[in-house]
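Provenance and format

Records in this collection were gathered into a single text stream. Each protein contributes a sequence line and a token line. The two records reproduced below are adjacent in the stream.
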Amino acid sequence: MASYPVVLFDGVCNLCNGIVKFSLKRDRRGVLRFASLQSDAGKEILREHGIDENQMDTFVFVENGQAFTRSTAGLKLFRSFGFPWALLYVFIIIPSPVRNAIYNFIARNRYRWFGKEDSCMLPSPEVRARFLG
């Protein structure tokens, strides 16, 4: 698991599931791994990095043994896709409190704007191996 970048996401959030589907299409090398924040694997990774496992309003990107959250995690994810998506990483120059204020506003409203499922999404058989327990 440590050799692959890992994306942790809210498995019942339609916006988050959309980001996972978007990521699967753009991860040309097929190296990203995914786990919902609600899963045992997701909770274990959160604990390993000292992140509250009950915090479902964050997005986490783990790369090279380091966990990034919120807007930084999103920018790191986009950078992993390569050109042209990696160009979005330029927004890292915006101070994280500003970026995260925008992130937090979207996170607080994500269920209202994009909806919520009753249970976590089930990956298709073609990509199931890229999802951690």
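Adjacent record:
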Amino acid sequence: MTNRILRITTLLLGLFLLYPAPGSAETPLPTIHEPEGKGLKCVEPEEVMRRDHMEFILHQRDETMHEGIRTSKYSFAECINCHVEPDEKGHIASSKSKDHFCNGCHEYAAVTIDCFECHADRPQKHIKRGKKTATIQQDLHQMLSANNDNGGELK
């Protein structure tokens, strides 16, 4: 009798694993906004970026912050500049919004994002500074140029 119950239980378990209940299908992967125009292509294939993007970002951070090597290939700012786009009304989702480029995957993977405690969550070209729109690099260049015109004295 015990062997028979064990066989039936094993058979039922096997059937359950082969034919899961309706509605228990895998959650689809989040949609990723692909860069548009000028033949732009991500620096790595999508499956590599899904798996390893954090390693690239951390490696870039270490090279930039600790070794002074500044490149754009795995630059966090370049990821944001390329993948975060305004919607049809011109609105750019905040990093706190479920609509932000990074949040779809991070919510899917149940990963907390702390990048935006220091980094901008939208492309530099869409950040308004005072009465104009400029990048941090443009502002820095303008400040340094003004200082060179004053004999190197900071204003």
